[in-house]
Amino acid sequence: MDIQKELIAEFDREVALTRKVLAAIPEDVDFSWKPHPKSYSIGGLAGHVAEIPGEWALQTLTTDKLVWSPESSKPYVAESKADLLERFDKESAKSKAALAALDFAKWDDNWKMVAGDQTWIDDTRYRVFRDWVLNHGIHHRAQLGVDLRLLNAKVPGVYGPSADEM
Q1: pLDDT(166) > 90
Q2: Residue 57: is it exposed, middle or buried by C-beta count within 10 angstroms (0-12/13-18/19+)?
Q3: Nearest 5°: phi and psi at 68?
Q4: Is the pTM above the cut of 0.85?
């Protein structure tokens, strides 16, 4: 099995499914809406969902370390659906190109995320890509689906039809 080829195919599938969910956000949504005070706003969650296969994946694939600080790491908060989809398409395409170009031997390299003197992630690039790009993106995409339901928007099917498609 060609692991690199399989990861590219999986990335493509998940990006397409994520775009489908992002595209389901109503045009007139209030991007500051939150389902709960401790939750992301829908603009913050949608921005995070868009960043994962974009900037987050690109950092994982092209650097060995991410130094996080509140000053340098401002999350993207979507303010319009058009901007959100444009950014998602552009950044996920850059990540796919980096994924396709990655030397197979680099999957075993160490990758870290640090914040000050704390290490938040310390694992192989492969594990970081699998856990913090693919799985993390799926997790937050599912949260976005719940928000869509709470907003009475149609929820698209992801791994099969949704209740709105049956």
Answers
A1: no
A2: buried
A3: -95, 140
A4: yes
